[in-house]
Amino acid sequence: MRIVPIMACAILLGGCNFKAVPDPTLSARDTAFMALVPQAEDDPRYGRWLVSDPTKEAPGTIVVETKERLLYLVLPDGKALQYGVTVGDEAYGWTGRATVSRKAEWPAWHPPAEMIRRWPHVHAMEGGPANPLGARALYLSEGGRDTLYRIHGTNEPEKIGQAASSGCIRMRNIDVVDLFNRVPTGATVIVR
């Protein structure tokens, strides 16, 4: 009788169309800083997975599905890497097409003027574990102009899977390091 549940699990798992992706190698600074960032329980829905490409975009393209709270990096051979993200709150959401114009490790944060007007307590800060941009940032441009939106890490990993940002796409720090290592400047980003 015990073989029936085991066979049922094997059949169900055999139909799964995803595979875990190992963590990237971290520098000593990454390890030290990330140890100081608050930890959150990981929700498997928002983990880093190798999946069949649901986007149908060209390899190398980053696609953010805001309703699903998922980011895909399209790979060759019909595959994609899937990452969980935090997206823009309804009032601040952004959709469109952009290009990765710059990449930075543990970037400094310079909140835009409209954010400072909304939240006077925010201020510019150097990169580090308290910085809201987290471990890495991909700066997005549209038509050669900075959109002021970023794909970046976070110091609030508990918000992955939510609509809680001011329009930027936030990722777990380990995931943004993985994406940063895989994506060159000039990559296309589509936010739907």
Automatic annotation (TrEMBL):
EC annotation from Swiss-Prot or TrEMBL: 2.-.-.-
Domain of life: Bacteria
Record-level GO BP terms: cell wall organization; peptidoglycan-protein cross-linking; regulation of cell shape
All residue ranges annotated as the L,D-TPase catalytic domain in the record: 60-192
InterPro entries per UniProt: LD-transpeptidase, LD_TPept_cat_dom, Transpep_catalytic_dom
Pfam families the UniProt entry points to: YkuD
Active site: H152 (proton donor/acceptor), C168 (nucleophile)
Top-level EC class: transferase
Known pathway: Cell wall biogenesis; peptidoglycan biosynthesis
GO terms, molecular function: glycosyltransferase activity; peptidoglycan L,D-transpeptidase activity
Stored CDD domains: YkuD_like (cd16913)
GO cellular component entries: extracellular region
Alphabetical keyword list: Cell shape, Cell wall biogenesis/degradation, Glycosyltransferase, Hydrolase, Peptidoglycan synthesis, Transferase
Keyword Oxidoreductase found: no
Homology family: Belongs to the YkuD family.
Protein's UniProt name: Putative L,D-transpeptidase YbiS
Species: Methylobacterium symbioticum
